[in-house]
Amino acid sequence: MSVEIRVPQLPESVADATLVAWRKAPGQAVSREENLADLETDKVVLEVPAPADGVLREIKVQAGTSVKSGDLLAVIDEAASASATAAPAATSAAAGNAGAAAIKASQAGAAPPKLNPAARRVIEEANLDAAAIAGSAPDGRITKSDALQAASRSAAAAAAQSAAPAAAAQAALATPAPAAAASPAPGRPIAPAPPRLGRTDQRVPMTRLRARIAERLIQAQSTQALLTTFNEVDLTAVQELRARYKDAFDKKHGVKLGFMSFFVKASVEALKRFPVVNASVEANDIIYHDYFDIGVAVSTERGLMVPVLRDADAMSFADIEQAIGRYAARAREGSITLEDLTGGTFSITNGGIFGSLMSTPIVNAPQSAILGMHKIQERPMVVNAQVVVRPMMYLAVTYDHRIIDGREAVQFLLAIKDCLEDPGRLLLGV
Fold first, then answer.
1. Which tens digit of pLDDT belongs to each residue from 315-355?
2. pTM of the model
3. Which of 113, 135, 159, 267 is deepest in the core (most CB within 10 A)?
4. CATH class held by domain 2-146
5. Structural domain boundaries of the chain?
6. Distance between CA atoms of 246 and 340, rounded to whole angstroms?
7. Burial of 251 (C-beta count, 10 Å sphere; 0-12/13-18/19+)
């Protein structure tokens, strides 16, 4: 009996997806719920599980093709037995070395390496052996970071092997001309210098995520009246609080007390005071949200993702730190879902982790504002007529000037500053 493999129902906001790679080649045995292919949308990578046991009989769509919900991808022969394919044809290029490594491991009696879709793609493109890569995830799964490191090592080894011929070629080109030809006669044209080796260009298409990020950023700048206001905050009180309770916090909740939970709490308190900053524009209407879904930007190899903390006002410091940790791990492993990234009424981005001292973040439309955190830097400050050294951070709020006036934006940022410089306000709600 033949079983059709079709593109699963995509979320309402996603029109199509790109078939990145096949995990199996025609003629190979497949197991129920085993991942057959990876689909990349503009936000996440989705897996296509096998609906039944059998043999992959035919692939209808090749890698790199754009597909929509319900499109036919392949056909499984449910009647065929695994023994009939004990010696399948060699794995095709579309299946890649990751699939080949899994087959070898299976034949040897060992469990196939665990891969997330992003890591699988890197391994295929770099022509690596997945079985030779050690996974760093808690369950031994190979992450994209592991695959990128392996690809870097492989490239370095290949470069070392070709270094000798390249050096010889360079030496030949650099050999000085005979003394008689060192000073050409007047009027004689000078021969052009030989071209340098290694001057190449590489054209790489954008991933769907990168293209979507570019589209949204251009959309935000072309449809909103964006303006940025700045201030600075003294984080002495926050640092002292963290230093006093970090061990007890970690012991009780199993997570470190970071800075982001303070900024999320301070932002929620400021949003309560200035509801228009938590609003959005729809046609000629202003939509006020009576909930606080805070997006926290997470940087990954694929690009920037903004998972959302739902009802952040009801979350404790521990809830926030744990949720951010889970989202960050899933985003970097490629297992984050579209639902995790959907919605949000306000966003926070932290360029300080990369050393940024000041920047102007871009609003994550259709939201109307975003808070930018930056590097903590000790600077001399005048406090009570004395010069003291304090841990200072520049804050930036970019906002949609169509609905948020400058006065509201400045006071909103001052409210965040007040909460951070006196964290007791967060506990007392004052």
1. 999 999 999 999 988 888 878 887 888 889 999 999 998 99
2. 0.62
3. 267
4. mainly beta
5. 2-146, 208-428
6. 28
7. exposed
Distance CA 2, CA 77 (A): 5
| CB contact at 8 A, 20 and 95 | no
> What pLDDT is stored for residue 92 in this prediction?
42
HEC string for 208-272 = HHHHHHHHHHHHHHHHCCEEEEEEEEECHHHHHHHHHHHHHHHHHHCCCCCCHHHHHHHHHHHHH
Annotated active-site residue in 313, 405, 418, 422: 405
Q: How far apart are the first and last CA of the chain?
A: 68
382 token code pair: 């005048």
Which residue ranges in the chain fall short of pLDDT 70? 11-13, 42-43, 80-112, 116-117, 137-139, 159-191, 195-198, 428-430
Give the residue among 277, 283, 302 at the shortest CA–CA distance from 294: 277
Query: How much is the pLDDT for 89?
Result: 41
Residue with tokens 């340098």: 196
Residue of 322, 305, 299, 110 lying closest to 212 (CA atoms): 305
What CATH number does the domain located at 208-428 have?
3.30.559.10
Closest CA to 2 of 103, 60, 74, 68: 74
Q: Hey, how many other C-beta atoms are within 10 angstroms of the C-beta on 207?
A: 17
Say whether 401 is catalytic. yes
Q: Is 405 a catalytic residue?
A: yes
Considering Cα of 83, then 89, then 90, then 95, what sign does the dihedral take?
negative
Cis peptide before 192 (omega within 30 of 0): no
Quick check: 408 and 279 in contact, CB under 8 A? no
Distance of CA 25 to the CA centre of its chain: 29
